[in-house]
Structure formats: C-alpha cells, structure tokens
Q: What sequence folds into this?
C-alpha cells in the first residue's frame, strides 16, 4: 500500500473564497484521483489527476470550479473555488500504485470542508 | 460515479455473529470490485477485491462473493467484532472507466458487545 496524507484535515471557510487541498504520497504512483463525499453519502469521483497534463473531469465537475494540479508522481492539489455551502463535503484523494484496471485504490484521510 | 440518498441501509449484529453486507451494481461491463470500510472521520480503507473471473475470494475473516448473473456482490465478515463497526462501501470498475471507481451507497454496520 501507500501512505497518503492530506492537508488541511479540516477547514471552515466563508462563502465566495477558495481552498486548496494538498495530497502527498510517500511513493511514486501511477494514478491519482479526487473524490467528494457529501454528508451522509457515498463517494463521487471528481477527476483523475494526470501528471504533466490537464486533469480529466467527470460529468458534473468542471475545471473552473475544481482546478487540479499534479506536478509530479507523488503530489497533487485540488482547489475548491468560489465556495458555497453546497460545497461542504469531505474531499478525498486516492492513488493506484501500478495503474491498470485490476489494481487496488488507496485513500487518504480526507479533508472535511465546511462552508458558511 | 453516483452518490445515492441520505439514508444508508443499516445492519446491526451481536459480537461474534457473522455479518453479510450486500451490494447491487448496475454496470454489466464492470469486471473489478472492491470493498471498503470507512470509520468515522477517516478515509475508506481497502478490505478485499475480486475480479470478474472469480465468484469467491477469501481474506482474513472476510469473504467476498460475486454473482455476475444478477449483478450482486456481498461481503461476509466472520465472528464480527465491535471494531468492525463502520460504513462499508462496494465499488466497481470496468468497461471504459479505466481505473476509476463507482461507489455503491454504503451500509452502516453496528456491532453490539
């Protein structure tokens, strides 16, 4: 497996501001993903963070709202822009060590975001 | 992926009993499945996975069963312990969703001492 850390672990933000969440992995990984987990619900994939190129977003998520960077094989950031209370969620990064279809995906501890 | 509803199914068991958590998936092209355990305030923890060329796989105290005919997945936990109390999610991948996971709605497992 991999050790995945996220910063911050939680934050309370004002409407209209932006927050950047960091995801750091202790080893080089092939694939990194960002998920959102709204209160009491399951996880929804936001995007795949691609190293050296633009992220691939899922339906319903756009780059202007959730810009993502992945400068190397161990680090990625997700920004939640122009926040509203509806953005209050847990944001999780995950990694797949070797890529491919049949490879375990491991999750970070999550960032709990509350927007007032 | 889709998130489903605000009210997760619940399962309450006594310590020492066996638990069975069920999951129905919708994509017939899915060929890889994972069960995760999520404790309060933590990220999902990988439990066990299974590929579609298998119908059963066993781990330590856990067994995953896959029925592709009816698109059903189950997680069996033997001798359930209070530390098993958590939300359990199934996730599927396959078809054109290379490496991406679609999560089920989750089940809250409560183990009573």
A:
């Amino acid at each position: 497996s991999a050790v995945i850390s996220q910063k911050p672990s939680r934050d309370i933000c004002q409407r209209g501001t932006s927050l950047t969440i960091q995801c750091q992995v202790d080893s080089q990984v092939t694939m990194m993903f960002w998920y959102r987990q709204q209160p009491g619900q399951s996880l929804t994939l936001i995007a795949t963070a691609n190293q050296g190129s633009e992220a691939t977003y899922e339906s319903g998520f756009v780059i202007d709202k959730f810009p993502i960077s992945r400068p190397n094989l161990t680090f990625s950031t997700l920004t939640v822009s122009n926040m509203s209370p509806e953005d209050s969620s847990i944001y999780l990064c995950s990694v797949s060590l070797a890529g491919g279809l049949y490879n375990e995906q491991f999750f970070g501890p999550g960032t709990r975001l509350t927007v007032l | 992926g889709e998130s489903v509803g605000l009210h997760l199914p619940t399962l309450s068991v006594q310590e020492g009993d066996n638990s069975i958590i069920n999951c129905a998936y919708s994509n017939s092209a899915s060929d890889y499945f994972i069960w995760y355990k999520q404790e309060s305030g933590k990220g999902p923890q990988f439990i066990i996975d299974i590929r579609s060329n298998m119908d059963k796989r066993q781990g330590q105290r856990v067994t995953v069963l896959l029925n592709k005919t009816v698109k059903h997945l189950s997680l069996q936990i033997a001798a359930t312990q209070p530390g098993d109390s958590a939300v359990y999610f199934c996730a599927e991948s396959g078809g054109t969703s290379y490496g991406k996971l679609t999560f089920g709605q989750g089940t809250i497992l409560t183990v009573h001492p």
Q: What stands out?
A: The interface with chain B takes residues 1, 4, 31, 33, 35, 37-38, 40-45, 48, 58, 92, 94, 96, 99-110, 112 of chain A (CB under 8 Å). The longest strand of chain A covers residues 89-96.
